[in-house]
Amino acid sequence: MTTDLHGRTERLELSDQSLRDFEAVVLDATPDGIVVNRSAFYPGGGGQPADHGVLIWQGVETRVVGVRKGDDLYLIPAEGDPIPPVGTVVRAAVEDERRSALMRTHSGLHVLCGVVFRDFRCPVTGGNMEPSMSREQQTVGIARMDFNLPEVPPGFKQSIEDACNAEIRADRRIDVRVLPRSEAFAIPDIIRTATNLIPDSVTDVRIVDITGLDTQADGGTHVASTAQIGQLRVAKVESKGRGFRRVRVEICD
Question: Domain 5-94 falls in which CATH fold?
Answer without folding.
Answer: Elongation Factor Tu (Ef-tu); domain 3 (2.40.30)
